[in-house]
């Protein structure tokens, strides 16, 4: 196997176990072999590389922290973070698919589902035989999901679901959707909606300049009859979907660093090779400043997510700590991508290098799972006790 190469300026590898390094290496090998050679083409064509689903399942990307009893690997959160980092080194859209499947579909079924739901869905979600999506955001309710209008009512032996969700990753091909909707008392609850239920449609969202290799769509419910056994019994209220977001945001905090590392690696290699005025451009102070800032920010962020992972392993990571890390990682990744793009000059805008694709992808990552502003306000609330949302 290849030796792992990555910016590791503070010898953080010493904080990892041999198992962590092995997992990281195996994911990286897979990404290098299966994702990197094809991803640019799929992104250019705005097509999701569906053939990668089987491999993603095989490397354990779907629900790695879920216990083996339900098809997961029972791994710790550092392993989960490293898996997301390595997948996003390939592409944020592929990491999105894994995030949604593991953190937003398997996690709520595992945490809030009935025994029957867990047995029915989790093993098949782990192998990718079933793919899922997560419907929280609506056309008129994004940052404020509590305002949602999608609703269901008791209709005897089933529920009747009405409403619409927007911007849903994996929706166009998902077999099931975990949908958050209000019950007759206005309480948010989760329902598992299967493709094929009458009145349920998943139109694809086109013309994206970001996450082009990820399929995004709407979920439309027109009097959909949902069997009562498809209601997630274990949670009611907004904390249901928000607790899933903690999982996914944690993964993004690591994942975005993968994209940042790929941009940094590409830029430093290019800067050492590319000559202008008879010197490698890496010899110019202006380029050194960009590279030095990149490695500094990546290193700081690596420390932050590693510590967050150890807290998460001990079940001590707070939602606000997760928000800080998600926000920080995406911001630095976007800045790294923008500077890396400039270091490559004209070449930086082409698909010959991964930078512009990462940069465009990160524009979604900075918005989904809570926008940059929302995460700042979560920190603001946490440190001042003052709620600036409303
Ligand atoms: P607020 O009144 O603060 O809270 C309502 C209830 O929820 C609880 N809570 C949480 N529980 C667990 N984890 C968290 N992170 C939680 N945040 C809040 C809270 O304790 C309360 O519980 P209870 O028992 O008192 O009822 O809610 P609010 O209405 O003021 O809204 C604030 C909030 C937190 C919703 C807002 O700040 C927010 O996070 N908005 C962002 C929405 C968002 O992130 N949407 C993401 C959609 S999914 C997605 O983007 C997937 S992309 C996936 C991919 O492709 O990778
Ligand atoms: P808005 O909430 O309308 O925000 C617009 C602007 O106003 C933002 O800059 C925001 O920060 C700002 N703003 C909002 N409220 C405040 C405030 N109180 N104070 C200050 N500023 C504020 N959702 C899902 O449920 N499932 C998915 O799988 C999913 N996948 C996605 C995939 C992609 C590619 C994208 C782009 C989005 C996805 N989303 C998904 C939706 C995503 O979570 C939302 O886009 C996001 O939460 C923001 O909501 P919005 O787009 O409606 O923006």
UniProtKB/TrEMBL annotation:
Chain ranges passing through the membrane: none
Catalytic activity: glutaryl-CoA + oxidized [electron-transfer flavoprotein] + 2 H(+) = (2E)-butenoyl-CoA + reduced [electron-transfer flavoprotein] + CO2
Family: Belongs to the acyl-CoA dehydrogenase family.
Domain Acyl-CoA oxidase/dehydrogenase middle residues, every copy: 133-224
Organism: Mucilaginibacter panaciglaebae
Lineage, opening ranks: Bacteria, Pseudomonadati, Bacteroidota, Sphingobacteriia, Sphingobacteriales
Cofactor(s) listed: FAD
Keyword Transit peptide carried by entry: yes
Superkingdom per UniProt: Bacteria
Domain Acyl-CoA dehydrogenase/oxidase N-terminal: 17-129
Pfam name, any one: Acyl-CoA_dh_M
Coiled-coil spans in chain: none
Record's protein name: glutaryl-CoA dehydrogenase (ETF)
EC assignment: 1.3.8.6
Location of the Acyl-CoA dehydrogenase/oxidase C-terminal domain: 237-378
